[in-house]
Amino acid sequence: MGGSRASMMAEVAQTAVLLIAHGSRRAEANADLERVAEALRARSAYSIIEISYLEVTEPTIAAGGMRCVERGAARVLLLPYFLSAGSHVTDDLERHRAELAAKHAPVEFRLCPPLGLHPALIDALLDRLAEG
């Protein structure tokens, strides 16, 4: 049993998270992603957590993916900080995933689902309504 736990811990240690937001001309909006990354660093076992933006600002997705590889990731989870699976997630982010995988083989790049209809998001919406 200890071997499987050890292998799971090793897999997490070699797995990076690349948070991806749309990007904004407003620095305050972009700063939110860094705060999300800080919260993930504090609450998750992933030792490599980087941020990136689809457009407008930096770091780009390519730069964020490269940073994950440089830090030793064998696998990178691309985590869209998007509400729905619109064309940015289904087309643009999948294209970026494929480009990263081709450029950084044999590192595995996997695109996670967007926030979508996750039950915790509904709870957050109810909290915001209560604040109104």
Can you tag this structure with a few keywords?
132 residues, alpha/beta, four-stranded parallel beta sheet, 5 helices, 4 strands, globular
Walk me through the topology:
Blueprint: H1 2-13, E1 15-21, H2 27-43, E2 48-53, H3 61-70, E3 75-80, H4 87-103, E4 108-111, H5 119-131
Parallel strand pairs: 1-2, 1-3, 3-4
Structure, explained:
With 132 residues, this protein is an alpha/beta fold. Helix content is 52%, strand content 17%. It has five helices and four strands, in the order αβαβαβαβα. It has helices spanning 2-13, 27-43, 61-70, 87-103, 119-131, and strands spanning 15-21, 48-53, 75-80, 108-111. 22% of the residues are buried. The model has no long low-confidence stretch (mean pLDDT 91).
Instruction: Provide the succession of SSEs.
Output: HEHEHEHEH
Structural class: alpha/beta
Question: What's the arrangement of strands in the largest beta sheet?
Answer: 2-1-3-4
**Spatial separation of the terminal alpha carbons:** 50 Å
Shape: globular
Compute the average pLDDT.
91
Radius of gyration: 16 Å
Could you name the ranges where pLDDT drops below 50 across 5 or more consecutive residues?
Answer: none
